[in-house]
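Rotation project, supervised by the postdoc (A.L.). Task for the rotation student: set up a whole-complex structure prediction and record inputs and outputs verbatim in this book. Inputs entered:
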Amino acid sequence: METIDQPDPEDFLKLLNEHEEALRLYLHTLIPDRAEAEDLLQATRIVLWREFPTFEAGTNFVGWARRIAFHQVLNHRRKRERRATEPVDPAFLESVAEEIDRQSHAWDDRTEALHRCLAKLPAKQRRLVALRYEEDLDIDAIAAKTERSDGAVYRLLSRIRAALHQCIDHQLNLSRNS
Amino acid sequence: MKFDEQIDHYLEGRLSADEALALEQQIACDMTLAEAYVNQAWLHASLKTSTALADRAPGLSAKPREEKHREFRNFAFGAIAAAFAVAACFLLIRSESGAVLDPVATLEKADGTRWAGSDLPTVEGAELVAGTLHLVEGMATLAFVNGASVTLEAPCRFELIDEMQCRLHEGSIVADVPDSAHGFTIDTQQLEVVDLGTKFGVTATPLGGDHVFVFDGEVEVREIQKDSADSPTLVTGGRSLHFGGSAENQAEAPRPTNLDATANLRGDQFLVSTATGGGKDTFIRRGHQGSEGSSPLLMAKHTELAPNNERRTLLGFDLIGWNAPEASDVVLQLQTRSSGLGFGSLVPDSVFEVFGVLDPALDEWSENELNWSTVSAFSDTELDPQQFRRLASFTIKRGAAHETVEIRSEALTDFYNTRRGALATILIARVTGG
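Outputs recorded:
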């Protein structure tokens, strides 16, 4: 009778290292709340290690990890629903997850384009983006820091994001045609 | 507020709970909205997780770009054309919103099969969650996540409960179970068959006779009705166990009915494919006199460069033979494969339009007789709005090789609801030339 070998932690860590950024991006796309997404990433890492014996070496690790992550999201939301007042729609999460599966083959290219576009932002706008996304300040805090109303800060960030979208699309068109 | 603005507000947490919920519900029902949403959500997520915010010379990226996502296959064909090949089509009908479950097995081989209305997809390669399969013709093999493999022989009604448990309602299966899936169990109505590392077969008949054959290894068989204190029977290689019914009854097991809708109800979600009941599918090609018959790969293509290559796909769904419920949401699910007929990378995104056939007389087409000239209504450049209703359109991105396309719209749901109890024909044609 064969015995099943225990998986090598090094194999797991190698795969996790290689794909963790992709998994993090997946969760943050699925869950707008930064803290919640990070919590779920942590929970998912644990389950990935626990379930690693069922992962077939050589198969699609990201796909496997995403399914586990999505499961964690649903579980987490179900638990939260019992305490919180705001209702949560699982059909919405499924739609988003499905759409991510559909779109994400293009994400590597988009990310590269995003890097180029960020480099093109004027300094003041880059600073705003850094305050919001790198330092993780919420809009009220940024408003206080930059002496603007929070409405104004929001609108500015909104315009910056729209500009980034346009720039990314443009970059992708350029590389397609070259 | 326009949707893009709403989505932006949502992602920044600036919508009220009610507004947020309303937006979520809209996104859940609309593929175009979902696309826009994920597009924006991706940007927010990228900005949060990106290492690019630190000052860095443009052009330097943190990781080398992987080429694997972009595969431009080179073909020997010179024609520039866009096509998608549809490997299978399903109408996914929801009367309330369905839930997502874990895949339990993959449908590995399914040649020459015919299925009755099932709550699981029945195309080769499909991932199966818990649910019931009803095989009317042919043989199909399921590959379980735990390594076990189960082959169904028609006629067969087989329920997947979870990774380690299944129920054979009727018919015959052969299970091949490796050591890693010890304990894999198949129930019949009367028996519980637990694998101990084997290859075994189980036959269940509605008249109550069950048979367990062990080809290799051992299984433990327990009567479900009896006390669990009773020790189970061990059946070893080369032996079989027969339980209940009589030999004659087994020989006369009646064929299961074709569309056993009640047995296949999984609460609120149904799948109808063009292989269900009187369903049919084919495509018609301009300039081609013969019919394409029931080809496993359907194609829809439109190109101004080579007018002879225009193709349209026809799907017929049989909504007659079962109690089709009123739907709140209908999804047309197409699984595409690259047809390998041209340089997909040189062609822009392909837009296809989906039409519902209104005129019942047009539902009577046959896979084996239909071609471009047989039914002129199908081949008109401009489809007659009296006979066709535009239900939706969808885009296949250039270079897309293999994906599932889901088409949803209110018009599609309405069309389904009005065609219940009859045949429903859908025509798919490509819009942009190239």
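Student's summary: Helices of chain B lie at 3-11, 17-29, 31-49, 247-251, 376-379, 410-419.
Supervisor addendum: Chain B has six helices and 22 strands.
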